[in-house]
Amino acid sequence: MDELQAVMDRARRKGLRMTRQRVIILQALCELGRHASAEEVYARATLHRRDVDLSTVYRTLERLRDLRIVSQTDLGHGHAEYEIVEEPPHHHLICQKCGRVMELDHRYLAGVAEAIRRDFDFEPVFDHFAIFGLCKECTDS
Fold it and tell me: What is the reported pLDDT for 6?
C-alpha cells in the first residue's frame, strides 16, 4: 500500500484530484506490478469495485500518462501497455524474432536525450522506451 500512497501523492502534487475510480485504477496498476494493458487494468480494478467501466480506465490511464504518472509503451504485443513511472526510468530491448525482452539501463538513453535537447531545443520524454531488434542468439542463428 506504500507504493499506492506514494503514487497518489505524486498525482496530487501534479494537480490531479483523486476520485474513487482513479484510486481503484492506480491500486490495480500497483497490484499488477508489471506492464499491463488497459483491459488487464480493468479486470483487476473490477475485482475491487464493479462501478469502474473500461472507458473510465482508458481515460484515466491517458490522463495519468499525460501527467507522467504512468508510462504508455508498445512492447510489440499489438496494444499499448501501461506501468507506473519509476525513477530512474527503465527501458527494454525486444527481439523481433524470439520475443526476448531485456532491460536497458536509462544511462544508455541519457546521452541521446541530452543531444536532442541541445541540437533541437526539444525536451524528450523517455519514461519508458522500447527498442526492437535482434538478440545475439537470433543474430547468430
Answer: 93
